[in-house]
Amino acid sequence: MSAPHVLAEVKDGIGWLTLNRPESLNALSFEMTDLLIRHTAEFEKDSAVRCVVICGAGTHFMAGGDIKGFHKSLTENKAAHLAGFEMRVVKAHQTIYQIRRMAKPVLASVQGAAAGFGLSLILNCDLAIASDDAFFTLAYRHIGLSADGGATYFLPRIVGERKALEIALLGERFTAQEARDNNILNWIVPREKLAAETEAMARKLADGPTFALGVAKRLIRNSFDNSWDEHSHREAEGLAACAATEDHAEGLAAFLEKRKASFRGR
What we know:
alpha/beta, three-stranded mixed β-sheet, globular
């Protein structure tokens, strides 16, 4: 049997999702979509998972859609291919929805190519770290397509409208430093240190006050769509909910006792 297209593992509070088609540069397949939907839903519900990392097997993160598969499907049965194309995108978007909804931090760890849906996936993670040799492109224009994965919605919110149009309309490759300069990445590290730095950051997130981090994530994610009047009420509700947690009591005690807090995620 062939290996699954996504590997899922929970280790010490960190949920690891590894895109696992290295021979195809981790191009998005039907199976990969199904497994991403399944495992993100499982990690969302699993209280043992306090942080999620998405990474790619081999030397690349994700080269986008399965172009060879697209061509084969289009040439073998064009009507069937076109009939199912929109629903294929809708299904892939379920993964994006679950990542953004998940009440725990999601970290993208990027090496090599991040193209097409791979770039979209990074945009929808909460934080992103990359090796210094990573490169990026919203490459849809090169195969005559517009973008999906929320790229046309979230990219302008991250980089600004003008830069988003440049990235989408030209489809040019850009470096990790350019991605960092445009707020697509949080950190760049040497290639040989990516695994260690990813684990260190994931550990920091997983050891945090999970409930409070989830509330902060939700508030920030929703802030673009709320008025201030509405959002001020959501902030008050969120803070009050956090105040009732064991982690808040532990944080207060640790501060007064001048020691590091030992959060338990509840």
